[in-house]
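Subject: Sanity check before I submit

Could someone independently write out the structure tokens for this chain? I want to compare against mine line by line before I put it in a report. The sequence has 116 residues.
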Amino acid sequence: MKRKYRHHTLEYKQKIVQEIENNVRSLSAVCRQDSLAMTMVERWRQQVREGTLQDHPTARERHLEKELERYKKKVGELSMEIDLLKKIEDYSLRMRKSSGFVVTGQNVVLRKGVKS
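---
Independent answer below. Compare away.
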């Protein structure tokens, strides 16, 4: 049989830690009455002291974060495409304005006498 894990909210964890820290209930009483593992409550206390206690994102939040990452990637790709198209457009305008004369080793000598 698959074990079902309980998920506790951030507010619940903070309330439990605050009760222990303020000596409202002892650690063993909290664990016994709320059916919590002593190591888990100790971990919550440590995290509160370090300022690292945080709520885990819900499945919907994780899904939205993945979707946001996909959109950011798409925007980046499209930005690169737009930049490339702008460069191509600038290049084609310059080529249309130029005479189309390609300078090679042989015609460099010929080109020196001609004014543009």
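---
OP: Matches mine. For the report I'm noting this point. The helical segments are 10-21, 27-34, 38-50, 59-97, 107-112.
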